[in-house]
Amino acid sequence: MQGLALIVQKALRQDPFAGGLYVLRGQARSLVKNIWHDGIGMSLYAKRLKKGRFIWPSANDGMVALTASQLACLLEGIDCRNPRKNWRPKSAG
């Protein structure tokens, strides 16, 4: 976590201890790591996809601001710029 906090501090020029959530991806785009400081300590959430890659939005200056729904899509491997409906059961009727 210290290495990720240092990336946030040096590369993004942000304070990783200010309470923001930072999502960083691996080079292969199949791994994301989320770090945040809740005022008590640093937390880490990591997710690796078995298949495919995370759809990463275009970044300006190395950063992207996401809404909660965009983050949810990203973590599910859904392209939030072009979401598609998945299979749904037929309604009983």
UniProtKB/TrEMBL annotation:
Q: Name one Pfam family in it.
A: TnpB_IS66
**InterPro entries xref list:** Transposase_IS66_Orf2
Superkingdom of source: Bacteria
Q: What is this protein called?
A: Transposase
Query: What organism does the UniProt record list as the source?
Result: Polymorphobacter multimanifer
Classification of source organism: Bacteria, Pseudomonadati, Pseudomonadota, Alphaproteobacteria, Sphingomonadales
